[in-house]
Amino acid sequence: MNDRPHELEELGPIDYLVISFPGSRLTGEGLPLLIDLVDRAIIRILDLTFLHKDADGTVEAVQVADLDGDGRLDLAVFDGASSGLLGDTDLAEAGALLEPGDSAAVLLYENRWAAPLATALRRADARMVAGGRVPLQDIVDVLDTIESLDPSS
Fold it and tell me: What pLDDT digit, counting tens, does each position of 19-28 carry?
């Protein structure tokens, strides 16, 4: 019997990030925070791929082993994080966002924290009709506007 339909019913929302590293300066500073999100089951990494854009515009996947130069493999925890959901077209689109000489991490992840809600909504035959993110600068601008209109400030 195929368990996949049951597994899919219990998935949380899936998002992606393309994180650019100008000049290919990867310090690994955010890596412990990403690992913490995984360890606490807030997210599940489905795919993690690193790209580099050469000076001539060629984009290729790269192996990144030791981000912080301490001699340890920083990404061993993500070894095998390849669901096959990210395809060549997705990586090409991500690479097109880079400037020559830059690198990027392409991350596809499940929001496990939202899985129980998503599962309940699917059982209730609810449908997501819109979604998105509000850019931080938009929030700052609105808060600044509200503050400037508040006579008590």
Answer: 999 998 888 7
